Amino acid sequence: MSWAKRILRVNLSEGTCQEEPLNMDWANQYLGQRGLATKYLASEIDPKVDPLSPDNKLIIATGPLTGTAASTGGRWSVITKGALTGAIACSNSGGFFGAELKFAGWDMVIFEGKAPNPVYLLIQDDVAKLVDASDYWGRTVWETEKGLKAEYQDPQMRVASIGQSGENGVKFACVVNDLHRAAGRSGVGTVMGSKNLKAVAVRGTKGVKVDNPEAFLAAAADGKAVLAENAVTGEGLPALGTQVLMNVINETGALPTHNHKDVQFDGASDISGEAMTVPRRSDGKPNLTRNGACFGCTIGCGRISTIDPEHYTVKDREQYQKASGGLEYEAAWALGAATGVSDLDALTFANFICNEQGFDPISFGTTVGAAMELFEMGVLTTKETDGIDLTWGNAEALTTLAELTGRGEGFGAEIGLGSKLLTEKYGHPDLSMSVKGQEFPAYDSRGIQGMGLTYATSNRGACHLRSYTVASEILGIPEKTDPLSSDGKAGLVIAFQDATGAVDSAGICVFTTFAWSMDNIAPQIDAACEGDWTVERLLEVGERIWNLERKFNIDAGFTGKDDTLPKRLLKEAAKTGPAEGKVNELGKMLPEYYSLRGWTDDGVPTNETLDRLVL
């Protein structure tokens, strides 16, 4: 139960859609979503395949709790070999699309090959077919979703699609659903575009059954009560969203600023969650219109914002004056502190463009930051940037580049390479603040030591959602650890990585873990799914997933040498704040991490570890 026990295999080259049974042996080992889809991917492709080759596959996957009454049970993921990194990629999204796919009776969809011409996949319960997408190719995510709902006269249809960035090969293109939710990182939208796959439109009416309804509803209700009573999930996130962190991280001295040259941003308060709630527009209203929630979510951390109608970015541009997905912390940081821009409406506009054209605001903003440093050094001039002045803090440059990047035009096409390829092209690869080619999120690891090890060892490149040690080091969840000390951080990172692997595979949001422990999650999975699902079993599933992903990357050509950080974080000390004078102590943490993982000194899982995890 809870699993639909069906997958849909779509051969884009041949134009076929075929049903096949879910491999339940694998489901019992990997649970669902991230873990289960990674198992399918690793079993079906050569890890050395070019990410943009037709031989790469793209999998859309749900978890067993997706579409159920579990709080936040709307998560789904896109799994592939990432276009940005060449590593294993699993990008998680919320909204309503995942639940709709489950309502239609499918656990996952596997796309293989490449369509000769643009197509979209239409799923209406058991019926699935590929449809010509020529009329939608070249159109934005917003236009595509609106057009498909109108074409089928079904406002309850859910759509996941790519924008022009995915079509044009922007290395960090996303798959966007419900207008402003996204499987956002690692270039999964780029892979989708390389297959001439514009969108997936789904309508499901079947619902989801669980193994023990009475026990499940009781466990789900208990979980919701815990979320409501917690200060983060019951108060902070509903009120300010993830933007509640902007001022906190800045005061901690861990807000990467000016491409990680600094660790504190003078303009942080101007782009914070608090600033979004203050009436400041020309019409007397705040940037924040309301909060929003994904399917089944009782937290409601989403932001819905409206730009000042008199702001230069939207004046006389009606489509951007409407309320849409507002700034979350990572986007606000990348578009703001990383580039030195403190214009809240300009950041909101750039974020709208990222949603509309379907590309990752984290990689975009940090790549612009790298370009601005190259400009400051004189390596880039207005000659190379087509006349755009890339001085730190130039809001008009940021918004102009957002539009150009989405369309793949001018210097925007250079930004679309991502910071690794951009800085290599101009002879300064050390200025790419990335791991395995993926740009850092919004935490400087000189001020939060555990995040340095998290970034270095993340299987999909630099990522905070694989091991959010910020919870412990800054927020004291589940217990407080010293952010400036590297002692004990190897064990902390492993614990977060394994737990997150299980959560990502269940079909629920990792934000629940601000309040929930595995003791809250295990009873819900146990009641929903067949078999006995204990805390210990779930943590083993998480460890198995982590090692499977690691093995995929090793087979793809990655080594322990890729578990590193840019020289700036290892050699240049923080200049201000609590971390002043400190660098990240990765060299101390990494050997302990390998040992605790049961890996060799070179970071390779031992045969004993692989055997224990049935790998």
Q: Quick gist of this model?
A:
The protein has 3 domains: 6-203, 4-Layer Sandwich (Aldehyde Ferredoxin Oxidoreductase,  A, domain 1); 240-438, Aldehyde Ferredoxin Oxidoreductase Protein, subunit A, domain 2 (Orthogonal Bundle); 445-514 and 534-612, Aldehyde Ferredoxin Oxidoreductase Protein, subunit A, domain 3 (Orthogonal Bundle), CATH 1.10.599.10. Helix content is 39%, strand content 13%.
What does this protein look like?
By secondary structure, the chain is α+β, with helices and mostly antiparallel strands. The chain has 3 domains: 6-203, Aldehyde Ferredoxin Oxidoreductase,  A, domain 1, CATH 3.60.9.10; 240-438, Orthogonal Bundle (Aldehyde Ferredoxin Oxidoreductase Protein, subunit A, domain 2); 445-514 and 534-612, Aldehyde Ferredoxin Oxidoreductase Protein, subunit A, domain 3 (Orthogonal Bundle), CATH 1.10.599. The protein is 39% helix and 13% strand. The chain is built from 24 helices and 17 strands. It has a 6-stranded mixed sheet with strand order 2-1-6-3-4-5, sandwiched between helices. Strand 10 (175-177) and strand 11 form a beta hairpin. Helix 1 (24-30) crosses helix 2, helix 2 (33-44) packs across helix 19 (489-506) and helix 19 (489-506) packs across helix 21 (535-556). The longest helix is centred in the C-terminal third of the chain and has 22 residues, at 535-556. The radius of gyration is 22 Å and the shape is globular. The mean pLDDT is 97.
